[in-house]
Every structure is written in C-alpha cells, then in structure tokens.
Specification:
heterodimer; A: about 170 residues; alpha/beta; Beta Polymerase, domain 2; 3 helices; elongated; B: about 190 residues; Rossmann fold; four-stranded parallel beta sheet; 4 strands
Chain lengths: ~170, ~190
C-alpha cells in the first residue's frame, strides 16, 4: 500500500502546515481526508492527479454548515478522488465563506467534473471559476434560489405554485 | 295523438348515443412518472385486463388519446410538459389523477413537487392509494364512464364554463348506496307491444 507515500509527497510539495489530514480510525484506508485552503484547491488537485496517480474524480459535492453546532465555516466543498491503479482513495475538502464563494474549476483536470460542478453550483451557489458552461443542471432556468442551502425553506418560496392554471374552457 | 314507429327502430337522444360510444372506447394517455405507473401497466396487462372496459388502447401520443392518467408525482419542471400534453389532446377529454402524489403531492411536500395536479389542470377522477391497486384504477374508469354517460354532450357543452358544470352537478341525483335504479341502457320505444 503506498498510502503513506501520497501523504509524504504532499508534505514534500506543500509543506506540513498548509493542510491537515484526518482518517476514520475504523476504516483508515477507505475514509481519508485532507483539508486544504480554498484558494489553493486547484493546485492540490492538479498535484494529486499528475504526481500521485489519482486519475478518477468520483464526486464533487458540498455541505452547508449553517446552524451546525461548532462549525466555523459556512460551506464545505468535497472532492472524492480515486486511484484506479492502486485502489487508493482520498477525500479533498476545502471551506468557503460568503461573500467569496469562488473556487477554480476542476474541469481542466477531469472532464467528469463538468456536470458535478454544475450541480454544486445549482444547489449551493458555489461559483467555479474557469468552468466552460456553468449553467443550472437540475432546477428550471427561471429558478433563482439554491435549494440545498440550509436557509432555504424545505417547502420552497412558492415556486412550486407559480404556474398558469388551465381550465376546461381553455383546454 | 298517436305516434307509430316502425318495428326495429330505436329512438334515443343523440347526446346519449355519443356518450355511449365515447365511454366504451376511452383511449388512455399514460403519464406515468413513478411507482403508480407500474400499477397502471398491471392494469393494462392480462391479469387485470382493462380491455374489459374498453380502455386498453394506451397511446403514447396525446393527439390520439382522450383520457389522461397521471400516475405519479409531478415536479415543477415536469408540470409545463404535463400541461402541454393536456392541451395537445383533442376534445372531448378527461383526466384521472392516480395515487396520492398526483392528487396531493403525497409525502413529497418539498420545494419542487407540485402539491396536486388539480391546482393547474382539470381533474375528473381521483384515485387514492400509494400506489392504488389496479382494481381501484378500474373502478375509477367505471366511475368515469358513468360520469360521461350522465353529463356528456355531443358538442362538449358540459366543459364550457364552471357555472354550467355546477348546474349539472346540482341536477344530479346523489347515489344512496342502496339499489340505484339506473336508466336502461337504451331507452327503446317501439310500437309492437306498447
């Protein structure tokens, strides 16, 4: 298992202070996380892909920590990476706060990030700088809220009732 | 004054005849978006066999259908599609809202799920259940046939305005649940033994 080597490589490249590492003691191989600064997330991802062999981007998602007990930051962005040669997995996280919700897009590294980042943009309003086509992917075009944010009401703000009513006479 | 009608001649109303034809050949438009769609398919399949009630010709083009069966939840992105399909169906047409989700939104009381299609479309029959059994859907089709027979007109006057529909409803006799005397299938008047 070359899992220590990934961490060693990261230490060599970025030093030991800039990022933090944690793992789930019950399954240390499958749930390893590093937390990196948001403005540098692209260089971390690029390094992990080019130098450490993480050739598969499994998922990009986000967590809203509003009202979360003890949370210091608002949004936690999550990149799940995998190395298809060694089956090594790594979760890269960074934290974002309003008003600056911009990170660099990972599309230049993995084409598969395209729709994943569009979903995060649609649901949370995170802006991915350099994304080739940052449009809504799930919600209708005229929808102007980000529904997975915790300050968005579960039942919406009336968008689901905002339609024309068709009667028998019109039909 | 005595009227004589030749033998083998039946007299009835044109509206009644049109309703009789319409109700026995409903062509459903299956708008199946969720698990109710599976029960809808079971209704059309051999075991439950909706062909016994003349509604077996499921068409996937709204222009060939006169009964829309909305089976499943409708989200706000799907509702404009649903309305467009409804508008594409030729008159006369009817709508069955099948299941809890189509009728009320069901358990999906969230920002994106429409809380009942009857907010935006006319609905004739509601089928409760999650999902309803095929028997319940068949019962809804039978009830819809009764409704078509009772209040249908040749040129669709019953669809014209809500006021007219209210007048129609006020004139209907509410079934008591006991023995209901329905009008005979074809009111025949002949000169033979009358």
């Amino acid at each position: 298992m070359d899992s220590p080597s990934t961490l060693d490589q990261l230490k060599q490249r970025f030093g030991e202070r800039a990022w933090s590492y944690s793992e789930n003691p019950q399954s240390p191989q499958s749930n390893r996380r590093i937390v990196v600064p948001a403005e540098q997330v692209f260089s971390y991802l690029e390094f992990l892909k080019e130098e450490c062999g993480f050739d598969l981007l499994v998922d990009v998602t986000c967590v809203d920590y509003l009202y979360y007990r003890g949370a210091k930051d608002r949004f936690g962005l999550v990149y799940c990476l995998a190395n298809t040669t060694t089956s090594e997995r790594l979760i890269v996280r960074c934290f974002l706060n309003e008003p600056d919700l911009t990170v660099n897009s990972a599309v230049p590294l993995w084409e598969g990030a395209n729709w994943l980042e569009r979903e995060v943009f649609d649901m949370f309003g995170i802006v991915f700088d350099g994304h080739p086509d940052l449009r809504k992917i799930l919600m209708p075009e005229e929808f102007d809220a980000h529904p997975l944010r915790k300050d968005y009401p579960l039942r919406g703000r009336g968008e689901r009732h905002n339609f024309q009513r068709i009667t028998r006479a019109e039909g | 004054m005595e009227l004589t009608v030749p033998e083998n001649v039946a007299i009835t109303k044109l509206d009644w005849c049109a309703n009789w034809c319409r109700k026995n050949s409903l062509w459903p438009m299956p708008f199946a978006t969720a698990c109710c769609g599976i029960e809808l398919m079971a209704t059309g399949a051999s075991k439950h066999d909706v062909a016994r009630f003349g509604a077996e010709v499921f068409r996937f083009s709204p222009r060939q259908c006169d009964l829309m069966i909305v089976a499943g939840r409708v989200v706000m992105k799907m509702l404009p599609v649903l309305q467009r399909i409804w508008l594409q169906m030729p008159e006369p047409k009817w709508c069955i809202s099948m299941g809890a989700c189509a009728s009320t939104g069901g358990v999906f009381d969230t920002y994106c799920v429409v809380q009942g299609i009857d907010r935006f479309l006319p609905v004739d029959m509601y089928v409760p259940g999650c999902p309803p059994r095929p028997e319940q859907l068949i019962q809804a089709i039978i009830d819809l046939q009764d409704k078509i027979q009772r209040e249908g007109t040749l040129n669709g006057r019953e669809f014209l305005t809500p006021q007219r529909q209210q007048e129609k409803r006020a004139l209907q006799i509410i079934p008591t649940g006991e023995v209901v005397s329905r009008p005979s299938p074809l009111p025949i008047l002949t000169n033979s033994h009358a």
